[in-house]
Amino acid sequence: MILLITALADAPKCASALQEATDESTLIASTLADAVRQLQEQEFSAVVMDQLLLDSEPEEAEVVFKHLGQAVPVYLNFALVGMSRVTRELRSALNRRNREVLVARREAEQALRHELNEKVTALMLSCEMALQVPGLPEVAATKMQTVDAIAKEMRDKLGVQA
Fold first, then answer.
1. For residue 34, what is the domain's CATH number?
2. Which of 23, 104, 153, 158 has a Cα at 20 to 30 A from 123?
3. Are residues 28 and 99 in the same domain?
4. 98 and 19 belong to one structural domain
């Protein structure tokens, strides 16, 4: 969902164009206070802000910025740019956000995989060492072999080289 913050009379037309360009529903806030209320009530993927409105109420604008959450901000002077520029800037910002989310997700997966790889390796080494203890009861050895087999299965699923 997109939040459009502008006091322009053409706001509904602009919201419609943004919705058509992005396939995301678009809500309008004609004041910064209304924008803050909407940002507190729901999540937005992007917030398109009229720079003139932000400049006219800098204290209220700071409150808007604090409530953006995960939304990507897009700042434009609607008095100077046309609708095509607004949609182009929004698409660009959403694409950039999607790329950043994808990179962050991949990095998190790699970090988790690395951490799990270390734990699985430690588990397998512990099992091998425990199986070499002289006089290890057969029941304990069987249990350790089961744990070792599970650890090897986990290693295979994580794609770890032996």
1. 3.40.50.2300
2. 104
3. yes
4. yes
| Residues 1/43, Cβ–Cβ less than 8 Å | yes
Q: What is the DSSP string of the chain?
A: -EEEE---TTHHHHHHHHHHHHSS-EEEESSHHHHHHHHHHS--SEEEEEHHHHHH-HHHHHHHHHT-TTPEEEEE-TTT--HHHHHHHHHHHHHHHHHHHHHHHHHHHHHHHHHHHHHHHHHHHHHHHHHTSTT--HHHHHHHHHHHHHHHHHHHHHT---
Output the six-digit token pair for 103.
């990179």
State pLDDT tens for residues 75-113. 988 878 888 888 899 999 999 989 999 999 999 999 998
Q: Which two tokens stand for residue 78?
A: 């609607």
Convert the pLDDT of each residue in 25-34 to its tens digit. Answer: 999 999 999 9
- Name the 3-class secondary structure at 48: strand
Query: What pLDDT is attached to residue 56?
Result: 87
Q: Which residues contact 60 (CB under 8 A, 6 or more apart)?
A: 32, 33, 36
**Cα separation, 155 vs 158, whole angstroms:** 5
